[in-house]
Each structure stands twice: as structure tokens, then as C-alpha cells.
Amino acid sequence: MAQTESLSRPNLKTPKAAAIAGMVFSLLIIMAFWLLLISIPADPQEPGSWLGANSNTVALGLNLMPFAGIAFLWFIGVLRDRLGQLEDQFFTTVFFGSGVLFLGMLFTASAVVGAILIAFVSQPGEFVDSATFHFARDVAYSVVNIYMIKMAGVFMTSTSTVASYTGFAPRWLAFLGYVLSLILLFGSYHIRWSFIVFPVWVFAISICILMDNVYRSPTLDGSGR
After folding, report:
1. Rounded to an integer, what distance in angstroms lies between the CA atom of residue 48 and that of residue 51?
2. Dihedral of the alpha carbons of 59, 64, 65, 67, in degrees to the nearest 10
3. In the chain, which ranges are E strands?
4. For residue 179, what are the CA distances in angstroms to 28, 30, 161, 176, 201?
């Protein structure tokens, strides 16, 4: 009985499901940001006409954010499970910390935009002309375009470094992560859609992990069942 438990317990980690969670995060975050980018003007000084015309689309995008965040936590979990005893304390701390900070800023910016929508519903005319609206809009813009995107770049850099040294992901994907992280760190001001490279990269890593799990799936009796 004890031997059976020791053999079956590792399977409870479900690495395949966790790899799929990385893909779910990528799809949800791309959809959410697409809805926001087509609805909210890039100029933070825009007077707020989007609130009346696109509020439902923005609300839909915001409602996708919590589910994307949950899936990203599962993705972080599968990466750590993948590393196992190969974890390096320095790079793992940077990798884990940047991932958590990325999520915190994602939720913070989403909450600020959600508060803008709620305040607009209660006082539509007065709110768009108030300093509160412009302050909240500038806060959300700064959190997303300065801090959150930079943390995504740090996450990609640290994860790519760990991948190149441990081999838990293909080396070419690690080098691609370095290149794409530079776009996030230095090109986010000039390329509006630059953030999309992050979920695309996460999706690619998730596919590699899922395929590796399929081909190296452990069995209990050696018969492939």
C-alpha cells in the first residue's frame, strides 16, 4: 500500500495540466489586451470619450484578467516543478519575484481602470472633467507601460537564463526570450503592441513543456498504460 502511494503521488502534480495553463494564460491575456487596446486610446491625455462608447468592451477585457492571472500562477508552478533540484536560489528568486510583481501590477492597473468605469457610471459628465479621472488614467497608463511591461521583460530574462543553464526548455527558446525581453525593456514606448511578445513566448514555452511531458510521460508498470 505504501509503495503504491509513493508511485502514484508524483502524478498528482499534473505537469501536463499546468503546461496547458500557460497556454490558457497566453490566450486570455492576448484577448484581454486586444479588447483594451482597441477601446482605450494610447494617448493618456485623451479626454475620455471612450468611456461612453467602449465601456462594455473594456469591462469584458477586465473580467478576463483575473482568470489570466490564475493561469499564470499555475504556469509559474510548472516551471518550478520542472526545475526541481536544479533550482538556483538567485535566478529563481528573480524569476519568481518578477512573476509575482507582474501579476500584482496587472491586477492593480485592471482595478484602476475598473474604478474609472464605475465612477463614470455614477457621474458621467462631471467625472471626465475632473482631476480624479486624469490622475487615475495616468496611474493605469504608468503601471502598465512602465512597470508591468518591465517586470515581464525581467521575467523573460531570468527564465531564459535558467532555461539555458538547466535545459528545461530548448536553448533556442531561451535565446529568443533574451531578444524579446529587450523589446519589452527598451521598446515598449515606441511599439504599442510590444507586450504581445510576452504571452506569445509563454505560449511557446508551454507547448515545449507539454510536448516533452507527452513523450516522456512516466508509467507505473512500464507497459505504457
Report:
1. 6
2. 150
3. none
4. 23, 20, 12, 5, 11
- State whether the Cα torsion 115-119-124-126 is positive or negative: negative
Closest among 79, 72, 99, 103 to 153, alpha carbons compared: 99
Q: Which amino acid is at 109?
A: A
- Of the two residues 219 and 183, the one the predictor is more confident about is 183
> What is the rounded end-to-end Cα distance, in angstroms, of the chain?
20
Site of grid cell 475620455 = 48
Distance CA 198, CA 27 (A): 11
**Among 33-37, 52-56, 188-192, whose mean pLDDT is lowest?**
188-192
pTM of the model: 0.81
Q: How many CB atoms lie within 10 A of CB 141?
A: 18
Query: Rounded CA gap, 93 and 74, in Å?
Result: 17
Residue 91: strand, helix, or coil: helix
The amino acid sitting at 192 is R
Cell representation of residue 91: 535566478
Q: Are 128 and 51 in contact (CB under 8 A)?
A: yes
